[in-house]
Amino acid sequence: RPSEARVEEARGGTGKAPLEHVVRGEHLVYGAGGTLVEALRSAHVTIDADPAADVPGRPAPPGPIRIDAQRLVLHLDPAAARQARADDLRRVEGSGGVTVSTTGYEVTGQTVEYDHVRRTAIARGAPARSRQVRADGLGGFVNSEEIRVEFEPAEAGGRRMRARRVTCQGGLAQYHIDADEPGAGPTRVTIQASGPIEILQASGSAQGDVDINTFEILPNGSPRRTAQVLADRVDLTFDPAGEGTMQDRLRRATAVGTRTKPVRMHATTHDATADRAELVGSWIELTAPWGTPVHVVQKEPSIMQFVCDKGRFNPRTAEFQATRQRVATGER
Q1: pTM of the predicted model, to two decimals?
Q2: Which end of the chain has less neighbouring CB within 10 Å, N or C?
């Protein structure tokens, strides 16, 4: 039977029961004058467990956050230990394949540092990942070598922490955007960037050598790439009705270039350059707010070049709609 330790954390206010953190593992070690608890092999800690649901001899009660790892080290407040009162939890270090989970959301890495005071998890791995957990497997995620996730405290009496901000330096993000055509499945959108990536609860951004790819999900479940957009930066807007504490359904992705390096779109039938490209529903909308016309190379069914004030391209159907189309007079 796994060993178990319970760490209490005092809460402000007279008469309030302390919070309880339950740690289990095949082997527990106590040290550093009562300020450290180490759990080894198949270890896990349930943070802010509900004491009212605690029944001796049964699994640990649910809490807003659970951390699983092969090795966990809990660091407690030295001042609390000296005063022989509740052992306030400061941070948790996990290694050996770590999962930090709350309802509908998880963070994984080879190592994770969870700062309980700031409600922040830093995961490192090859790669580390933060993701929405959905039954259909279509939850959004971010992969990077190091990911920082900031949580909001659980609501009073709630059993769920909210991830409010995810940041990393370079990485890959994946989301889904609903198609416009009736009966069509969602479009998968992947975003690779070399610079900072930031995902908030309803918006996000990625910068530096941004590489966006769209995929149609075939009936057998495999993805088919339909278009690529290369840009300097992309801003994301999520659907407020999407699932998850951080909305997991992409509503709009706005990619922008620079005056010397415009956005480039590549697909089987068309290539294009523009100042800005927006992924909305089934379409990629190409515009030129800086005044340079959108330049298009049609490759199928026949080869032709033209410019337009703005264009719309549907990667699923290969349809291109142009506004004020005219013959191209030179390459952009």
Answers
A1: 0.86
A2: N
Q: What SS3 class is residue 79? A: helix
Residue 25 in tokens:
């593992």
Q: What is the DSSP string of 232-297?
A: EEEEEEE-TTSSTTTT-EEEEEEEE--SSS-EEEE-SSEEEEESEEEEETTEEEEE-TTSPPEEEE
* Cβ-based neighbours of 65, under 8 Å, separated by 6 or more: 46, 47, 48, 100, 101, 102, 114, 151, 161
Give bridge partners of residue 278 from the DSSP assignment.
254, 285
3-state DSSP assignment of residue 251: strand
pLDDT in tens, 198-218: 999 899 999 999 999 999 988
* Cβ neighbours of residue 141 closer than 8 Å, sequence gap 6 or more: 129, 130, 131, 132, 173, 174
CA distance 93 to 261: 44
Structure tokens at 296: 């298009």
| Greatest Cα-to-Cα distance within the chain, rounded to the nearest angstrom | 82
Residue 239's identity, in one-letter code, is D
CB-CB contact of 142 with 129 (8 Å): yes
Any residues with CB less than 8 A from the CB of 183 and at least 6 apart, and which? none
What six digits make up the tokens of 152?
Answer: 């909001």
Tokens at 131, concatenated:
């993701």
